[in-house]
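User: Quick sanity check before I run a bigger batch. Here is a single chain. Can you write out its predicted 3D structure?
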Amino acid sequence: MEPEKKNGNDGKDEKQEKKEQRKKVLSFAAIALFSLLAIGVGLWISHALPEAFARWNAEGELALVLAAFWVVLMLWFVFVMKSRGNALVYSGVIAALTAGAVYLIFNFDAVMDAIGVLGVWGIGAAIVIAIWIGGAVILKRDRKKAAAGAPPAEGAVVIKKMETDEEIRGKAFVHWRAWHEAYPGLVSEEALEKLTLEKCEEIAFKWRDNLLVAVADGRVAGFVGFGVREGEDPDVGEIFALYVLPEYFGKGVGRLLMQAGLDRLKEYPRVCLWVLKENARAIRFYEKCGFAPDGAEKWNDYASAAEIRMILTR
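Assistant: Done. Predicted structure follows.
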């Protein structure tokens, strides 16, 4: 196997994603806080201006507070959250929930007589839960739309099933180049001479199932093969091969491929792989992915080299 090297750039995309998630959470937290402040202001006004409120009926009070709050929410979504298309929907839902809270405030005694203390707390808890569940659903939906509609950014890596002839030839090139750049001194010269680019293309066109490629910058940057080996333990999945072009070392391609392969083998509690015994860098990579040697060894006749087995238990 030819895993990637790890350097300080691996966590960049993860950090950016976490930053975006924190920003969205803070936005919804700010809305929730604003709702509480609006209710507090309504309470203060009701106590500070009792004579003025006495001249209004309950419907007038509710309509005034709701209209003002709805306008402020729309301005928030349009200018702060940059969500003009959903401003009416989002602000309408939150304003409607707030209207219920305002009505409860102005008709507290009547509501208390009707449903009691536990009922009031139950309604309040339901409103809070509904706001947060609704927010989570909206965020998840927006992320899915963005992922489906936006083209991959420059340098982005897409893990996909190998389908086209171009991808098959790209996979073959990765296989050939990885062997000839990583394995001199680890396998016999005869094995390297036999593994020509034409041979790798022949293998690639024959072996299309259970194989994913990593596409970056318009070409195949790596691939992973997975499945269950015939005649072996049917309850153990296996990573058959994982190779990455050298120029994509340290960019997370190897880890993405490994995770994608493991996801396809998720029904197996244990996953194994075989790696050249002298390939120290590959062994370190697999150890970082959670694999550990189990003591099993075998001789690879084609490569004229010893291999060890590594196991991932989950």
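The chain has ten helices and seven strands.

User: Great, the batch can go ahead then.
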